[in-house]
């Protein structure tokens, strides 16, 4: 019994670590969207702010990227669901000898690296374009067309897998029955097969849209003049990150959670209704007096959905009335004080040192003390600054360079003391930056 | 008209049949086969400015492949040490990421598949939600955590474990964590699907006969889950070897991923044939590796994607 | 209703690759008939049905419906309606939508459809059930909905592919009567596929017995039972005891067979084989279990059979006696239970008697598998 509970405990421990790994980054990223420093970070917490959301909504490139992503996504959904459905139908009736080869071909795009798909799409359509004698601005070399084509190549495989799973449960006799009752092939497809496939088509469409929306590897070769949101994000993230991106991520996270919960609540409700219908007697069904379960009864997803909705409304409500100016000013003041204190300290130390050195010089007059790691005095006033800059330049590393570049305005515009303080501690850089504004 | 086509059109109607056949042919031939062949063909050609394409200089050559092995002609070294090192490092790292993911995900997949209850649905939801969020944003989230001044460093320094912030990015820890993170779902789902269909009685029977848990997994669960495991491993390996976003965002400045070389050839050097050759090398190597491993573990292509 | 539309199969061959599913079938089905194809599974009867409904194009020969050649006409253009083995009700449509699907195709208004659905629901004794889903009905109810859906299309010919096979025994027997009643009410031609001879015999005007793609005999139920044309028909329809032998003598409509085990026996030659059976031919003689009666011990002659009793059983309405028969198969005799005393014969030899009219001779041929 004891070992059993130990096993249980370790299972829960493992689950906790796993989900912390899975969800932690998202939570922390979401938190950074509300923190005021210009470099996204969750700690130290400075001020609650919503300015990154307004920064996000003023970013033309992001908004344009969202629009392009929707265009590409719509095209990809239509093309890949259509191809996936055709591919799945073909799989059920293809000549048995060809089946394995055919399956390998249509499943391969899932395994081919996205980079390779992007390149092959680009190279192939470029060649077609040249063969047709079209110019560089033709329809075929258009970024929108290429991206949709490139993404659909492998997204259609995902759709096919989703659709074929449902299709396997389809009784071909249903189509035959429709034909037998006078329907044309198109009518049988539309009125019988399509309604049956509808749930799977909906899942495939959602999957296709999400896959398209987040695709980077393929799109990065094909986007042309239509950079999608992912491409814009990647460029922003590669060349310096701001909490505005966290704000966008937060919005996407909330939307995702919302949709997922809504879907789950809906499924749960359907299950409960089906269970109730099954238990109901014919009389109850006929009289319409069957009591269907309440939307919230034993439906955790629905409850969670409402909680998320309330939280969102509360957040938006707060954002409209809340102003972080006071807090930011406080923080700035605090930083200024800290910086001043440090300068004071430094001056004091330098003064002490100078005094000691003077004393030593006065006593011996030859060697400097090894205990302090200060640079050899190169000259009067500047040596203090040298002290401060040197360790930073050594420890900062080039990975920091991008961040530093992004806020490079801070030291130059911030004036003497803030540049000094900023260099002292990279953490304070953003503070210095905002100081300069 | 061949009889199987006639049969096909009889079964599906001429209109529906043509649409179906057209879509399938467009997908398989127009989107899958021809572009790959085209890329292969392209990789054997010299990099020429557009007017000279199809001209006398446009002949087949092995130059692009030689470049990967020997480096630029007249170069100082015998071998293209930089690119080759990146290539092998990518493959080895992808294997490591795959193994790490398998070890991390197998217990979770087993737990989800063999436990009943409402909380499993919540777990499943929590598992899927991160994958509805942009790949770039996932990498971005990890960068916030692993950054010099990120949460993790603050925590470690705050706890006194480290004196100075540890550079996770330069040491590629962020990259491996990011790659592992990116493909968790692709590892869990195939394994989950297979284990879910395993009759619980088999496990009970094994326990009844006195087998220990490691024994049960080694002799009952893992052999049964092999198709799922190989399917998950194949996907994770191929995708991490072919990943581009995570290395670009989380990779250290000095360590490149092979896909980044391809990207550079295309976007920075504008040397498409060279990039195509690198892409072909990546694709072929990955496929050969996967096939070899599938051979080793005796699983079929048909199991992939189930 | 009209006299109905007939269906003719002319020299019909259907091949799948090298496999011949139907071999030279010639059938004339009269308008308004209830016609059954009876045969074991895999004999090609469903293939014939699919050829009539248009899902299959015959390799050779023609299907004529009402005298019109159906070659090249798709299933949706033929005046037939098929009831599938698993019924194939559309699972996502309500019952009334299922029933009136054929009207929806023609663009009828919802109101018209609803009205027609109510009429048909009344006819199949399911009034007021139109708003349910197929999954909410019982097996027998679904069965009737499938019939109503097919009838709603107003076909000239209704095709039924073993529609009762999924039902339990009692319901199956009930549905037989019901199907026959519906057929008589609507007066259209029914073509029914079954492997159950009970179904075929109780419902059909005429039956075609099929074996491995070949039609052995076409006749009404009584004829098939009493006067089978082939060994297969004799052994497949109802229980029968077989005696193998050679024709010893032909005497008008009767023949004397020298059987392998029971000496010379006389029986009626089945009408399809009269004049064809000659002395010296291999022949098979069939006697139904109920055609025997007990005879005095040791009686001999051309209509007496003596054999050893293996075991006996009491079935209520009959006593069954199982005796040593030919080729490892037991000879079965059923004596009606009329309240007489019945002693145990196990292990003894007993002698049986039959009327030569009740025994039938056909040329030797393949027997139906058990």
From TrEMBL, chain B:
<protein>
    <submittedName>
        <fullName>Putrescine transport system permease protein PotH</fullName>
    </submittedName>
</protein>
<dbReference type="InterPro" id="IPR035906">
    <property type="entry name" value="MetI-like_sf"/>
</dbReference>
<feature type="domain" description="ABC transmembrane type-1">
    <location>
        <begin position="87"/>
        <end position="293"/>
    </location>
</feature>
<keyword id="KW-0812">Transmembrane</keyword>
<dbReference type="GO" id="GO:0055085">
    <property type="term" value="P:transmembrane transport"/>
</dbReference>
<feature type="transmembrane region" description="Helical">
    <location>
        <begin position="86"/>
        <end position="110"/>
    </location>
</feature>
<feature type="transmembrane region" description="Helical">
    <location>
        <begin position="228"/>
        <end position="250"/>
    </location>
</feature>
<keyword id="KW-0472">Membrane</keyword>
<comment type="similarity">
    <text>Belongs to the binding-protein-dependent transport system permease family. CysTW subfamily.</text>
</comment>
<keyword id="KW-1003">Cell membrane</keyword>
<feature type="transmembrane region" description="Helical">
    <location>
        <begin position="12"/>
        <end position="34"/>
    </location>
</feature>
<keyword id="KW-0813">Transport</keyword>
<dbReference type="GO" id="GO:0005886">
    <property type="term" value="C:plasma membrane"/>
</dbReference>
<dbReference type="InterPro" id="IPR000515">
    <property type="entry name" value="MetI-like"/>
</dbReference>
<feature type="transmembrane region" description="Helical">
    <location>
        <begin position="173"/>
        <end position="195"/>
    </location>
</feature>
<feature type="transmembrane region" description="Helical">
    <location>
        <begin position="122"/>
        <end position="146"/>
    </location>
</feature>
<dbReference type="Pfam" id="PF00528">
    <property type="entry name" value="BPD_transp_1"/>
</dbReference>
<feature type="transmembrane region" description="Helical">
    <location>
        <begin position="276"/>
        <end position="297"/>
    </location>
</feature>
<keyword id="KW-1133">Transmembrane helix</keyword>
Automatic annotation (TrEMBL), chain C:
<protein>
    <submittedName>
        <fullName>Spermidine/putrescine import ATP-binding protein PotA</fullName>
        <ecNumber>3.6.3.31</ecNumber>
    </submittedName>
</protein>
<keyword id="KW-0067">ATP-binding</keyword>
<dbReference type="Pfam" id="PF08402">
    <property type="entry name" value="TOBE_2"/>
</dbReference>
<keyword id="KW-0378">Hydrolase</keyword>
<dbReference type="GO" id="GO:0022857">
    <property type="term" value="F:transmembrane transporter activity"/>
</dbReference>
<keyword id="KW-0813">Transport</keyword>
<dbReference type="GO" id="GO:0015697">
    <property type="term" value="P:quaternary ammonium group transport"/>
</dbReference>
<dbReference type="InterPro" id="IPR003593">
    <property type="entry name" value="AAA+_ATPase"/>
</dbReference>
<feature type="domain" description="ABC transporter">
    <location>
        <begin position="7"/>
        <end position="237"/>
    </location>
</feature>
<dbReference type="GO" id="GO:0043190">
    <property type="term" value="C:ATP-binding cassette (ABC) transporter complex"/>
</dbReference>
<dbReference type="InterPro" id="IPR017871">
    <property type="entry name" value="ABC_transporter-like_CS"/>
</dbReference>
<dbReference type="InterPro" id="IPR013611">
    <property type="entry name" value="Transp-assoc_OB_typ2"/>
</dbReference>
<dbReference type="InterPro" id="IPR027417">
    <property type="entry name" value="P-loop_NTPase"/>
</dbReference>
<dbReference type="Pfam" id="PF00005">
    <property type="entry name" value="ABC_tran"/>
</dbReference>
<dbReference type="GO" id="GO:0005524">
    <property type="term" value="F:ATP binding"/>
</dbReference>
<dbReference type="InterPro" id="IPR050093">
    <property type="entry name" value="ABC_SmlMolc_Importer"/>
</dbReference>
<dbReference type="InterPro" id="IPR008995">
    <property type="entry name" value="Mo/tungstate-bd_C_term_dom"/>
</dbReference>
<dbReference type="InterPro" id="IPR003439">
    <property type="entry name" value="ABC_transporter-like_ATP-bd"/>
</dbReference>
<keyword id="KW-0547">Nucleotide-binding</keyword>
<dbReference type="GO" id="GO:0016887">
    <property type="term" value="F:ATP hydrolysis activity"/>
</dbReference>
